[in-house]
Amino acid sequence: MVFLRCYRSKYIWATLGVLALLWLYVFPVYRIPSDKEMVDEVLRQGQTWTRNQTGVDLYRMLLTECCDPKRMFAVTKENSPIGKVLWYDGEIYHYHTVNNETYPFFVQDTPLHLPLKKCSVVGNGGVLKHSGCGKEIDQADFIMSFQNLLWSRKSFVESMKAYGSSYIYIPAFSMKHGTDPSLRAYHALADSASDQTVLFANPDFLKNVGRFWKNHGVHGKRLSTGLFLVSLALGLCEEVTTYGFWPFSVGLDDRPVSHHYYDNILPSSRFHAMPEEFLQLWHLHKSGTLRMRLGDCAKEGQKPKREK
Question: For the chain, which domains are there?
Answer without folding.
Answer: 29-299 (3.90.1480.20)
